[in-house]
Amino acid sequence: MKPASRGTLPEVDETLDPEDWDTLRAEGHRMLDDMFDHIAGVRERPVWRPIPAETRARFREDLPRDGVDVADIYREFSEHIAPYTAGNIHPGFMGWVNGGGTAVGMLAEMLAAGLNTNVAGRNQMPVEVERQIVLWVRRMFGFPDTASGVFVTGTSMANLMGILVARSARIGPSVRQRGLLDRGARLIAYTSVATHGCIAQAMDGAGFGTDALRRIPVDRCHRIDTDALRARIAADRAAGLEPFLVIGSAGTVDIGAIDDLAALHGVCRDEKLWLHIDGAFGALGVLSPEIAPRLAGIESADSIAFDFHKWGQVPYDAGFLLVRDGEQHRRTFAAPAAYLRRETRGLAAGSPWPCDYSLDMSRGFRALKTWFTLKAYGTERLGAMIDRTCALARCLEAKIAAEPKLELLAPVQLNIVCFRYRADDADRVNADIVASLHESGIAAPSATMLDGRLAIRAAIVNHRTGMRDIEALMSAVLELGARKS
Ligand SMILES: Cc1ncc(COP(=O)(O)O)c(C=O)c1O
C-alpha cells in the first residue's frame, strides 16, 4: 500500500493489519510449531553457544525505511537470534538464578500480546486476573485480605518499591512533596552482608544513599546475625539516627541462605521497624511442605518482593511486590491526575487500579502467564518441582563431598551448590573451567566469590534439570579441571 503523500488524506483502510490474513496466519502457525519444537528439543542443543562475529555484525544495519516480508524477518530470527540466547530454558543451565519457563506460559504470553491491553487499570477482566493473583499470593503467604500486591518487572524493582513504601510509612505523606528534607537524612536501614546488590541500589534510588544501609555480619550459613543487628540498631539510636527498616533474605543470591525470619520479626516488633523480605526465588519455597517451615516468620513481614519467573517457572518477566498494609501501599504511589479520572460506571470505573500501587503507568498483562501457570500445574506440583531442584542440589553436594579433587565452598541450604576444583591457582583455574563449560555447551553454571575464593556456582532452578545434567556437570568439571591445573 502506498503511503499517503503530504497534504492528502490517508486511505481509510490504511492500517498495519495484514492485507492477506491467511498468509500471516500460516506464518504464525509455523512460528508456533517451530517454537514448540524449539522447547521440546532443547536438550539436543548446546546450553549456550558463542555468537559468531558476522551474526553480531548483522545487527548494526541502518534503520529500515521500507518494510520487508514477515517470512524474511522470521528467517533472520530463526537463524541469527534464536540459537544465541543465554540458554536458561536448557536443563544444563545452572547459572545465576534463572527460571526455565514453560510452553504453557509461552502460550499465555502470546494470548496477552494478542489482547495487547494496558493493565494500568480500567474496568476490564485483565485487572480482575491480576486481582485474582493478589488474592492467591495473600493466601500463599498468610497475609490478610487488606494486603495489596502488584506485578513489576522483577525483584530489583519490587525491592525498590518496598523500600519506598517503608519510607513513606515512616516519614508520612510529606515525603511525596519534601522528599527526605524533613527526617529522611537520619533514617537507617539494615540488611546482611549476604543480600543481593539490588538492595544497595534501591537505597540509592530511594534517595537515602548506600551509606544509610548497614550491612550486618552473617553466620557460617550466611544468615544474618540478629544479636549484631540489635547492637547496631542500639548504637545508631545512641548516635541520634533513626532506624526504620530491616531487609531480610529468603534465599540469598550466593548460597540460598534463609535468614531467621521469625527472629527478624521479633527485632522489628521490639524496635518498631518495617520488615521487608527479599524472597526473589526463595519466597516461593512456601509452596513446598519441606521448605515452608524454614520460612516461618515470612507471614509477619510488612512487605515481600519475589519473582514468579524464577522457581515459579513463569516466563520472563513476572516480579511481584506484596504489602501487608494495602492502604499504605496505595498512598505511596497513587498520583491523582485529571486524565486518570475515576468513575463509578463505564470503562473508567473499578478504582483503585494496579497503577495506583506502582511506579509504572503502562503495564503489560503479566498476570495472565502467571494465572495460566498456577492453574495448569497447581501449587502442589510447583512445590514438588521446587523440592526436586533442592534434592538435585543435595545429590550434587554428596558427589562433590565424595570426590577428593573437588571442594564444597558453602553449605547447601536450598538449590544452590558452590564448589571448586582443587588446584594451586584455584581462582584462575575455576574461572577458566566455568568459561570452558559455557563454550562446551554441556552446562552453564556461573561463578561467584565466597570468602575471597572463586566458586563455581550451580543454581538449580530449571524444572527440566535432572540427574543426568548433574552428572554431566560433574564429569565436565573433573575433566576440564584435570586439563587446566
Ligand atoms: C536474592 C535475590 N534478590 C534479588 C534479585 C534480583 O531479582 P531480579 O533479577 O528479578 O530483579 C535476585 C536475582 O537473582 C536474587 O537472587
UniProtKB/TrEMBL annotation:
Enzyme Commission numbers on file: 4.1.1.28
UniProt keyword terms in alphabetical order: Lyase
Enzyme class: lyase
Protein name: Aromatic-L-amino-acid decarboxylase
Organism field: Nitrobacter winogradskyi
